[in-house]
Amino acid sequence: MSVIQSLLSEPSTNYGSIDYNKIVEKHPWIIQPNQKCVLSPDSDGLLCGLLMSNYLDWEVVGFYDGKVMLLDKKYTAKDVVFLDIEICRKEIRSIGHHMLMFNNKYFLKVQEKFANCIQPNLMRNYDAKKFRLKYPLATVHLLIGILDHTFKKINLNESAICPLLFTDGTFNVLFSYPENVLDWLKYLRANESETALHFLFENDKYSVITLMRAMDDFFRKRDEISVSKERGDRLRVSSKDGEPYNIEDENGSKKINQLAQDRTIAFLRILAETTGWLYKPTSWTWDGLVLYKFTKEDFKGQNKRLNGRNFEDFLSKNPLSWAMTSGDNIEFTLEYPSKMI
Asked: What is the CA radius of gyration of the chain?
């Protein structure tokens, strides 16, 4: 029996299926129209922004990558919803899918810190011992499930399958960790017919070779807008050392430079064409931004073991956001030199 199969066989792993109505009861803002949002600047974040602007008229007013945040100068972090990024502040609304819990001993403490965050791994009380069972899909898939069950039926066409399997390397995960993916699809109720997730993941019309050809075509479109050191499916807003990237001064505020803006819009148009979700230029903000710089670190870079004592010390630093990137490492962001709120 594999490690994943063994973990899935444990009684504590059986959480039934997701209750989308309960999520909306606790976090009604997730289906409220005309919200302002900040995205992670990758394909998942961009898809989330496109989905929410299309169905709920949300407006994208900034980006956050763990080192840099760009936010429309008219708003504060309390005014917006962070999509594809968990923010460890109970007064800030967010949704993400990273592994956050080191040990269930700290569940109540971590849950309190993320009280206003929609987080699938916390829903199932998964910690580092079950790292192999972490949520394997993208945030946009969770958003599709929430909207499809509680707000409005999400109608996907076949061309939407490629971007939705591409994002966050979902197509790789499907075949690398099938046991875990199948368990999560059952949890997300993708087995229910006439749902968007059922159409996406149980589409009988796509043979393996047909899907490969369709994905190859999608990759080629992405590569046509890629440049050196910048793939076409993401907006780079910081360098490895945390310095702002693709950002310029303009009349006392900041803006995404024109070339980076054009590439991102080109990719959004590819996503819009394939998903059928309308790209609305007026719903995306590229200038009039305030720049926030933060400090990003990780346990391995500090030569620290991931254990209870070090995790408690880590929590005492009040990190702004974090993600377990492996069973023995956490990448995290501290509010320095800027403060988010």
From this structure: 19
